């Protein structure tokens, strides 16, 4: 398989998993101090990575949570922010301008912050109450599973946390299996739509962040392909009018509570376009993850599937995923 090193991925997964105890201690400490609400905030794809965890809390926890872009948070603020708030930030580089500025502001206000970064000695870590360096190891969501899962456990809202966290140790290996299962489909998709003029990507629930980030951060930013992302329920309030026989529609189908919303999109798309593709969570083999936990790990698993699309697009189009015209290239 193209650029696939199963052993390396599992090794990196073990390193990411080794952070469990440290992250759980952070969760226990902030919970003991008191949590009035939680703000998830970052920029771009990092904000999208946190969407499933805000969704998880909104649907399963009594602790109020909010998802804001760092720039919006800086510009507008929030009346809900108080001395017992927790602000969770994510920046892979650790130096994203707006995210660092927000951490500095929270530092001045005496608001506790927890930052996830991929490097040592970053400005974001320096200005955060707590910082976790994941070194960019995948699955990148592990830190959030440990942090949010533990907080919810202590709040008597996730009694299965220990079992869930134990099973996560095998998630990287299962993600490798998914990557192998989907690779031929991913290659066919990349070959077929490598030069598509326009495509529509649809998702819902805890896969909405994945849908949004893949269309924006991979297809648009990394491959310069014009893409529209829309949630499954919102698809029928505007975007579906652009569906024609030759318009590619891609659905990331959840197996969680919002699956009926995805199925409605699938039923419509199969009638009105000949270019419909779906990546269905129910089709992926996860031998070590209990059925009840499968919806929670959807973002990580779908990333493993879509990563295969990304690598094939990069190869077929001879367009490196790191190539940019403007991002961190020019002043803006």
TrEMBL record:
Q: Answer yes or no on keyword Hydrolase.
A: yes
Q: Which residues form the SIS domain?
A: 26-157
EC number from the UniProt entry: 3.5.-.-
One Gene Ontology molecular-function label:
isomerase activity
Write down the Pfam families for this protein, in alphabetical order. SIS (PF01380)
Keyword annotations: Carbohydrate metabolism, Hydrolase, Isomerase
Q: What InterPro entries has UniProt attached to this entry?
A: FrlB_SIS, Fructosamine_deglycase_FrlB, SIS_dom, SIS_dom_sf
Top enzyme class? hydrolase
A Gene Ontology BP annotation from the UniProt entry: UDP-N-acetylglucosamine metabolic process
**Highest rank taxon of the organism:** Bacteria
Q: What is this protein's function?
A: Catalyzes the conversion of a range of fructosamine 6-phosphates to glucose 6-phosphate and a free amino acid.
Subunit structure and binding partners: Homooctamer.
Its protein name is Fructosamine deglycase
